[in-house]
Design the sequence.
C-alpha cells in the first residue's frame, strides 16, 4: 500500500497532469511546501499573474523554458546536494508524522534529486524504519564529473557513502550506475538492477499511418547530453546528396530542447521542410505520435555512456526499430545490441549515421522495416514484471532479521 510524500506545485517547463489519472484514487498523497527556488517562482507567478492578453505575460511564457533551465543550472553551483535542499525541513517534519500515522513499514526514495535520499536517510535515523534507495541516474552531476576532485564532488561521494552504508537495499536502472555505487561503498548489500520500462496498455491504441512517408521520431528532450546535431547533420547530407527525396521523409520531435535552439539548427541544416516540431505533449499523445512513426531515434553524447533513458523502453513497447547514436559499449549500446533492436552508431561518425539512416529507409521502401525482436525478450521490461521484482525486494528486506 503506497503512501507518497512529495512537494507542492513548482514552476517547471514540463507538466503532464494526465499521468496522475493513472493512480488509484485510494493512493494517499501528502504534499508539502518547500524553499525550492522553483517553488518560490511558482508562488510569485501566481501572485503577480497577468491577464491573458498582456504582452508581458506572453513574453514571459515564451522565455520561461530557457529561463528555468539557466536558473536550475546556476542554482546547482551553490546548493548542496542539489537545488531541492529547501524541501528537506518540510519533508522531514511531514515524513515523521506520516510514519507514525500510517504505520509505515518501509521507506523508498528515488533520485534525482538527491535531496529525496537525504530526507529518507534522516527519516531512517529518526524512526529506525528500513530503507530502500533507488538511483534512476548517475548520482554525480555531469558537470561535476568533469571536475572529479572538486570540493562539491568529494562531498557528494562522502554523502553517498553514508546513504549506501545505511540503506537496507539499493536499486539502480543499469549496471554502470550500480558499479559506480559499489565503488563508493564496496560493502553495499541487497542490490538490484531494475531498469526503466513501459506499460503495455499505453500501446493498445489504433493510429493512422502515412504509408508512403518514412517517419523518424525523437521522443524526449534534446540537450548537451542527448544532442541533436549528429543526426541533423547526417540527414541534411543525405537530402542534399539526393539519396532521399524530401517528399518521402519526415523527422518528428516530441519534447523540448534545453541548452540548444533546435529550431535554429533545423534551419541551418536546411531541414525545415521535412521536420515537425510538436513540442511537449501529454504522454498519451506522445505515444500516439510514436506509434505513427517508422523509426525511433535515440541520441546520447560521447561523454555520458552511463545514460540509458526511459525512451528506449517506450520504443520497445511501441515495437519500433531503434537508430541509436550513442557511445560504443555504453549502456544504450549494450541494451540495443543484446536484443538486436536496431543499429548503434557513434555520435562522432557522421558517415555511419548516414549509412544507418539510408539502410532503414531502404527497408521501409521494401516493406521490411519493423522491430525484429522476439516479444518475449522485451516483455521483461513491461512495468508489471518490473514492479513484481521491486515488491519481492521489499518483501525480502522486511523478512531479514
Sequence:
Amino acid at each position: 500500500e503506497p503512501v507518497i510524500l512529495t512537494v507542492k506545485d513548482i514552476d517547471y517547463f514540463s507538466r503532464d497532469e494526465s499521468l496522475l489519472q493513472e493512480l488509484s484514487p485510494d493512493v494517499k498523497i501528502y504534499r508539502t511546501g518547500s524553499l525550492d527556488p522553483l517553488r518560490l517562482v511558482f508562488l510569485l507567478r501566481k501572485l503577480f499573474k497577468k491577464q491573458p492578453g498582456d504582452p508581458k505575460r506572453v513574453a514571459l511564457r515564451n522565455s520561461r523554458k530557457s529561463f528555468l533551465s539557466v536558473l536550475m543550472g546556476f542554482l546547482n553551483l551553490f546548493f548542496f546536494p542539489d537545488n531541492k535542499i529547501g524541501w528537506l525541513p518540510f519533508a522531514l517534519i511531514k515524513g515523521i508524522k506520516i510514519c507514525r500515522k500510517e504505520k509505515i513499514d518501509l521507506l523508498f526514495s528515488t533520485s534525482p534529486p538527491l535531496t529525496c535520499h537525504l530526507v529518507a536517510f534522516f527519516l531512517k535515523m529518526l524512526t529506525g524504519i528500513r530503507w530502500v534507495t533507488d538511483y534512476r541516474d548517475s548520482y554525480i552531476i555531469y558537470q561535476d564529473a568533469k571536475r572529479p576532485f572538486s570540493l562539491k564532488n568529494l562531498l557528494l561521494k562522502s554523502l553517498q557513502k553514508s546513504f549506501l552504508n545505511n540503506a537496507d537495499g539499493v536499486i539502480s536502472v543499469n549496471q554502470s550506475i550500480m558499479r559506480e555505487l559499489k565503488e563508493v561503498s564496496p560493502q553495499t548489500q541487497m542490490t538490484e538492477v531494475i531498469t526503466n520500462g513501459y506499460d503495455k496498455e499505453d500501446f493498445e491504441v489504433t493510429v493512422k499511418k502515412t504509408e508512403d512517408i518514412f517517419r523518424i521520431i525523437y521522443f524526449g528532450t534534446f540537450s548537451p547530453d542527448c544532442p541533436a546535431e549528429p543526426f541533423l547533420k547526417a540527414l541534411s547530407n543525405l537530402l542534399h546528396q539526393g539519396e532521399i527525396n524530401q517528399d518521402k521523409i519526415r523527422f518528428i520531435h516530441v519534447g523540448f530542447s534545453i541548452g540548444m535552439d533546435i529550431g535554429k539548427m533545423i534551419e541551418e541544416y536546411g531541414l525545415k521542410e521535412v521536420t515537425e516540431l510538436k513540442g511537449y505533449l501529454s504522454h498519451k499523445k506522445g505515444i500516439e505520435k510514436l506509434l505513427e512513426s517508422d523509426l525511433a531515434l535515440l541520441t546520447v553524447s560521447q561523454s555520458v555512456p552511463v545514460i540509458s533513458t526511459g525512451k528506449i523502453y517506450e520504443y520497445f513497447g511501441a515495437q519500433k526499430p531503434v537508430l541509436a547514436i550513442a557511445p560504443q559499449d555504453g549502456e544504450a549500446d549494450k541494451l540495443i545490441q543484446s536484443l538486436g533492436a536496431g543499429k548503434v552508431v557513434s555520435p562522432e561518425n557522421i558517415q555511419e549515421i548516414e549509412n544507418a539512416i539510408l539502410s532503414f529507409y531502404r527497408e521501409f521502401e521494401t516493406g521490411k522495416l519493423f522491430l525484429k525482436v522476439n516479444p518475449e525478450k522485451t516483455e521483461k521490461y513491461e512495468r508489471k514484471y518490473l514492479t513484481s521484482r521491486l515488491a519481492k525486494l521489499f518483501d525480502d528486506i522486511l523478512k531479514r532479521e
Remarks:
- The radius of gyration is 22 Å.
- Residues 55-76 form the longest helix (22 residues).
- The chain is about 45% helix and 15% strand.
